[in-house]
Amino acid sequence: VAALGPRRGPIRTGGTVKSKIQSNVFIANGDWEEGQVVGWSAGTGTTLTVESSTVRTGNYSAKAIVAQGTSAGAIISQSVPNPTVYRSRQIKVIAYLRRDSGSDAGVILRLDDGATQTDSSAVTAAGWTYVAVQATVGASISALTISVRTNGTTTNAAHTFYMDDCYVIPTGGVEAVGSAIRASTSPH
Length: 188
Hints:
Elements: E1 41-42, E2 46-51, E3 61-66, E4 74-79, E5 90-101, E6 107-112, E7 117-119, E8 129-136, E9 145-150, E10 159-170, E11 174-177, E12 180-183
Antiparallel strand pairs: 1-4, 2-3, 3-10, 4-9, 5-8, 5-10, 6-7, 6-9, 11-12
């Protein structure tokens, strides 16, 4: 039986064919369905694991436990591969975030091209909250980082945050062409 469309499952571990763009095309393990912390790094004072009981979609999400007394900063981050292909292009990064414990720090999604940092609004809710950042990447960048960051010091207790379904979307979206995926604004 043949099926048309992008793969849903992780590139490295196989999966079923569904109508959702594979998150691993532009970043590693953006939907966390590899069931492990692949492609992402934990920040200072943070224990980063995968979670199977608190997920937005699929079977897994990221769980970040930030120790009490940790200053505001990155708790989950990833360097985007091949950042120079995004030079002078507008991209959008989306994700779903939530805070399940702690009360004095929220989280934001940040896109950083080394010269400019673009932040989402802060999330402090216990339910999944959609966040997005959109920016035109610098013309001479050599690095591009996506991070989830606390916006305050975790003074009263350890805090628990979750992330799921993170995607990078170049201007104009993407299209599947045979077995390759390209930005729809780059026809060649």
